[in-house]
Amino acid sequence: MTVRHAQCSCGRISIRCEGDPGRRSVCHCLACQRRTGAPFGCTAWFSEAQVQAEGEPRLWTRRGDDGGEGRFRFCPNCGSTVWWTCEALPGQIAVAVGAFADPGFPPPLVSVYENRKHPWLDHFADLDLERC
Questions:
Q1: CA distances from 109 to 21, 22, 40, 58 (A)
Q2: Secondary structure of residue 97 in the 3-state scheme
Q3: In terms of residue numbers, what domain contains 59?
């Protein structure tokens, strides 16, 4: 069985995920853009039975674009959001894919709020790639 570990930037909070996520998605809603500081959020969804959290995150609650409540767990030290829950998906834990820091993580299969997507995202294939 695959076991993945996600954590905040400073390592104070983490989550252990066993098995494969049930859903992998990107979200272009304005709230996800603000939460991530990026043009979209990328999420892996696991059942509660698949995850074990460690550390003492802070909790922030907000209403999403669809009116549902999201409860976000973030590090009180570095501010990274690592996981959250949504009232629309009880029993599911959403984990920020970037918190896994794994370039081999499986790609998203679902994209939501496409009407708020930055149009230039469609041009990534045309970019000149530079290695850092």
A1: 11, 11, 14, 30
A2: helix
A3: 3-113
Report yes or no on 120 lying in a domain.
no
Distance CA 40, CA 29 (A): 7
| Total structural domains within the chain | 1
pLDDT at 21 over 90: yes
Give the strands of the sheet with 3-7, arranged side by side. Answer: 3-7, 14-18, 51-54
The mean pLDDT value for 42-63 works out to 96
131: confidence class by pLDDT, cuts 50, 70, 90: low
Structure token digits, residue 3: 């076991």
- 119 in a structural domain: no
Token look-up 């794994």 returns 102
Distances (CA, A) of 75 to 5, 12, 14, 15, 48: 15, 7, 9, 12, 20
What CATH code is carried by the domain that includes residue 21? 2.170.150.70
